[in-house]
Specification:
This protein has 2 helices and no strands. Helix 1 runs antiparallel to helix 2.
Length: about 60
């Protein structure tokens, strides 16, 4: 798998898992942190990975 597509895939999976945590774990209480906040962080990390993968993909095409 090319590095750009790997970043895109990882970012998409991370964002989907984060969205599931943010939407489905509102009633779950953990002493240290809330899973809803972890989900929001995962969405942000996934979005950054997606954008970086798209950037690398376009950068590799323009270098050819």
């Amino acid at each position: 798998m090319a590095p750009a597509s790997k970043n895109i895939a990882e970012g998409a999976v991370c964002a989907v898992v984060g969205a599931a945590l943010a939407l489905l774990t509102e009633d779950v209480h953990i002493p240290v942190f809330t899973l809803t906040k972890v989900g929001v962080v995962l969405i942000a990390v996934g979005a950054v990975q997606l954008l970086y993968g798209v950037y690398r993909g376009f950068g590799a095409r323009s270098a050819e």
